[in-house]
Amino acid sequence: HYRSPLVADQSYTTDQDYFQKHLVSQSSAIPIVIYLHGNAFDRSLFNRRGICEKLRKELKYDVFTFDYRGYGDSTGEPTEEGLITDARYVYDWIHNITNGQRKIYIWGQSLGSAVACQLAARLSDDESKTLAGVVMEAPFINIHQALQTHYLALLFRWQPWYYGLTEKALHKSKLAFQTRGHLSNINCPCVLLHSDDDYTIPYAHSKQLLQAGLSVRDHNKKEKKLFHFTIDMISFHSNGYGHSLIYRSPKLIPALKHIIFDEDL
């Protein structure tokens, strides 16, 4: 349970309705991005603040982020279901206080991309709760394959016991984060972002997710369902962005505006 000085020392408003007043007072034409951060630390990590600031300044969107249970100053213990429940609560709260009048996007990075994918899939079952789109930055196929391909696993994965040990530990912890499997239930545009020099979650994860998503899209067309699902991928090549620095790319926002965000804002 980590709480950085930036979170611990920040000033808190005493107005319990601050966020509600702000979101309600804004034009319904201004979209909202809910940012779901990755594993470890909290919402104040430099890259997380960097992308939120970029979305706010360059797109003029409202950006809402939070710490899951067990992260930052949020109490409790993190679980897969718990993280998704927290994200769903935030989405429902924002959707309700804005009366569903504002576009809501979900942006998830690394672990947050898996949470975003599952949340989008669950929202597809609720016709009254629609998403404008999902951005998955440095996503992984599932948590088991993420562990197998992590650069630190190079030290151990040749050992015959490694695969079974990690599988057993994940099963005991009830962790799966099956991003590829949940793509088939999403009913909104989806964009993958990945740098080819990401050694934490290798680039190949997004390539496989893209192919899986394209197959889902074709299947949906044939079955005449989930008409709003599309999938695209923006790649970043040899720029030193690694796992966490895609937000520094000058092409990021223009590319997203062309694919998923409103170009006229």
From TrEMBL:
Domain AB hydrolase-1: 31-192
Top-rank taxon: Eukaryota
Stored Pfam families: Abhydrolase_1
GO cellular component, one term: endoplasmic reticulum membrane
InterPro entries with a match to the protein in the record: AB_hydrolase_1, AB_hydrolase_fold
GO biological process annotation, one example: phosphatidylserine catabolic process
MF (Gene Ontology): monoacylglycerol lipase activity; phosphatidylcholine lysophospholipase activity
Protein name: AB hydrolase-1 domain-containing protein
Source species taxonomy: Eukaryota, Metazoa, Spiralia, Gnathifera, Rotifera
